[in-house]
Amino acid sequence: MNPFGSAGKDDDTPFDGSGLKIKSIKTRRQLNEAEFESILRVTEKYLLSKPGHKLAPFTFSWLLELHREMFGSIWSWAGEIRTTQKNIGVSPNIVTAELGVIAIESENRHNETGELVLATAAEFHHRAVWVHPFEDGNGRWARLLANIWLMQHDQPVTIWPATDLRDTESPIRGQYIAAMKRADLRDYGPLIDLHKKFSE
Ligand SMILES: Nc1ncnc2c1ncn2[C@@H]1O[C@H](COP(=O)(O)OP(=O)(O)O)[C@@H](O)[C@H]1O
Ligand SMILES: [Mg+2]
């Protein structure tokens, strides 16, 4: 039996532990804890004080680097564009171009202030998930990305209820997925509202 469980209750992305760097991790719980610890350190790096453009430049290579920082101690494929087709996300051969769009848009919108900042953060958040560049960790990477953008532009960050977002039974997760689907249709209202709801 696969100790990590199949594509089921806990996670959207099916995986079998291939690429796992820490051999002592045997269960989903141990994996969750290791990932949480690692992500916490990266969150502190970027969000303990306002992250400048130098620390978080939103370039193509930095977008990959952020994922590597979050998951690189655990997964061999961290920060690397996936090679396989997933049920969510664009075809792997256009991931590079689509990430390039985020990088270019971040340049175009770098001087935005006020209300526009949250709208742009929500748009980047959605686009990052929609592209789904990596094997796994796309949701957590996209949410941190949005928070770095918010704080870099002097707006409050969004404290997502991590347990609810993981729990397929949770109504909050339902709202989150529904908001993502509205954003697929270029209606960012529900996602912006969710950001506001969990705003610090
Ligand atoms: N049906 C869906 N439509 C759009 N986005 C979805 C859907 N289901 C899940 N997602 C998004 O994909 C993410 C899960 O992708 P994954 O790579 O497993 O990230 P993580 O491991 O950080 O949760 C969720 O957080 C959510 O943002
Ligand atoms: Mg996952």
Structure description:
By secondary structure, this protein is mainly alpha-helical. The protein has a single domain (28-197), classed as Fido-like domain (Fic-like fold). It contains eight helices and no strands. The protein has helices spanning 28-47, 60-71, 95-108, 115-131, 138-152, 162-166, 171-184, 189-197. Helix 1 packs across helix 2 (60-71), helix 3 (95-108) packs antiparallel against helix 4 (115-131) and helix 4 (115-131) runs antiparallel to helix 5. It is globular, with a radius of gyration of 16 Å. The protein starts with 27 loop residues before the first helix and ends with a helix. The structure holds adenosine-5'-diphosphate (ADP) and magnesium ion. Residues 11-13, 88, 129, 136-140, 165, 177, 180-181 line the site of adenosine-5'-diphosphate (ADP). The site of adenosine-5'-diphosphate has 14 residues, from helix 5 and helix 7.
